Amino acid sequence: MKKFLLLCAAALCLAATVSAQRDKRPHFGSKQNNEAIETWKYVADNNKKDEHEWAKAVYQEYGVNADGAIQHRYVINANDTFDIPKVMNLTKLWLEKAFTTPNDSIVQFDVEKRIVKAKVVLLGLGDAYGFGGFAATASEAHVSVPLELTFQFKENRMRYEAKIETFVLNSSDWVKDVVNKSMPVTDCFPIKTNSKHKDSFSRAFINTNAKCLTSCRDYINYLNTHFGDKTTPQPKEKKEDDNW
User: What is the mean pLDDT of the chain?
Assistant: First the structure.
């Protein structure tokens, strides 16, 4: 009986040790992103009946940066320090999974500067179809969205940034074609209220902002799920001081 009790005590001690080791794994989260998503839900719930008004409400809430680009930037905190090269490698894996991107979409992977940058193209965010106008012709418009993602890292936090400067419009009807016309976001509805293709640009503006928000959330979930996975070793990082 005494031996049995000793074995039980040892098992409990081992379980406690394993549990403690698991608890030491950094947990990642972003209060900024959580709050922005809650705001999004409120805006969406109050404007879903009219896409044009919804796009205007999104613009009013999230705006554009000083350069006229859609920008979402959120600090992601960890509850402990972490191996920066490992998290950078996880970031690369997430990018390849989330956007089905080839390796050349990752334009910068610099361990010394602690930065990862990627450029991807989002498709199907601004599709619209119509029938009317001159000679009652059928028409359609599509908007693709070049998205730049930047990740910067410190010992116990990182910063996620998603930025869109242009929409690429592809519209056509039986009379004329406009193929791959790149336009600054500021030349498109809802920022430019008298622009053409309001349906397409409204949907693109709404869906692009939503994608920026949810991608940050999905990235955090990926880190929390896969931080314990084995990854390819990366060179040691060079420490630098900055103030964010």
Answer: 82
3-state helix, strand, coil in the chain (%, to 5): 40, 30, 30
**Most distant pair of Cα atoms in the chain: their distance:** 95
Identify the H or E element spanning 145.
Answer: strand 137-153
Can you give the three-state secondary structure of 19-53, one letter per residue?
HHHHHCCCCEECHHHHHHHHHHHHHHHCCCCCHHH
Question: Is the preceding omega at residue 233 within 30 degrees of 0, hence cis?
Answer: no
CA separation for the pair 205, 201 (Å, rounded):
6
Give the whole-number percent of the chain exceeding pLDDT 70. Answer: 73
Q: What is the pTM of this model?
A: 0.80
What are the pLDDT digits (tens) for 29-67? Answer: 999 999 999 999 999 999 989 999 999 999 999 999 999
Beta pairing, strands 115-122 & 166-173: unpaired
CA distance 179 to 142: 10
Q: Which residue carries 């409990």 as its tokens?
A: 12
DSSP string, 178-244: EEEEEEEGGGSTTTSTT-S-HHHHHHHHHHHHHHHHHHHHHHHHHHHHHTTS-----PPPPP-----
The pLDDT, as a whole number, for residue 170 is: 84
